[in-house]
Write a structure and sequence with these properties.
Length: about 250
């Protein structure tokens, strides 16, 4: 998915540059070739700035080194632009400077355009980082609330019923209903086991597509099954590694 997003971004940038440079002298074919020469410089500068300089120095608050390396990047990118101009002079203008696109001979305009693209990419990445952080914080807050919860509300016989989490031994999913096995009784509800799992704290572990167990109630466990009291709960191959990792860390 990220590759597609990058392709869309750079295709849009390339189209914008071809149209902009082509309007300067009406020769869009020449503009296309010039943009083809310039694009690798824009790509290299943008990825170096956004994926190395920013995370390695700016985000880690090493501002002096960031400023120093950014200056080096600016100088080197201008040098690369001059190489592009030389190639364009040879290939596109047949060694005649006057035949070059007027925009392409303006080094200040080229540099400004290049770093507009770099900073535009940086802005997009900043928005994505912010969205990822917001999603992570929301997920952590949701997990925290689940772990602090002392009871769960389930629908039983068209009524809401509160069940203490400490009293739940395990949950068993059958054909079209779910059995919640507690220390005192078995509660039957039409809710799905996956929906209950989303509401329960992390100590409730999915061991099988049909079983969800309270980790605090496990007395023994092996590779293929675990015990809650006298009841054997299967551990399917799908959940085996996750169950093993969770139980070995907490035991």
């Amino acid at each position: 998915m990220r590759i597609i997003q990058h392709l869309i971004f750079w295709s849009t940038v390339s189209l914008f540059l071809v149209i902009t440079f082509g309007q300067a002298n009406g020769d869009f074919i020449e503009a296309f070739y010039f943009v083809t020469f310039l694009l690798p410089v824009a790509l290299a500068t943008s990825y170096f700035f956004n994926y190395f300089l920013v995370p390695s120095y700016l985000l880690t608050r090493r501002y002096v080194l960031f400023g120093l390396y950014f200056a080096y990047t600016l100088i080197f990118s201008i040098y690369l632009e001059m190489i592009v101009l030389t190639i364009a002079l040879i290939v596109l203008a047949n060694y005649t400077y006057a035949n070059l696109n007027p925009y392409s001979t303006n080094l200040f305009l080229l540099t400004s355009t290049l770093y507009f693209i770099v900073f535009l990419n940086a802005f997009i990445l900043l928005i994505r980082r912010y969205q990822r952080n917001e999603h992570l914080l929301a997920k952590m807050e949701h997990t925290k609330k689940k772990n602090e919860r002392e009871q769960i509300i389930v629908r039983v016989d068209r009524k809401n019923r509160a069940l203490a989490l400490d009293e739940i031994l395990y949950i068993e999913s059958l054909a079209d209903y779910v059995k919640i096995h507690t220390t005192g009784e078995v509660v039957i509800t039409k809710e799905k086991i996956s929906e209950l799992h989303d509401q329960l704290p992390e100590r409730f572990i999915r061991t099988h597509r049909s079983f969800l167990v309270n980790q605090l109630q496990i007395s023994e466990f092996g590779k293929e099954e675990l015990l809650i009291g006298e009841v054997k709960i299967p551990i399917s191959r799908t959940y085996r590694k996750a169950v093993s990792d969770r139980l070995r860390v907490t035991t």
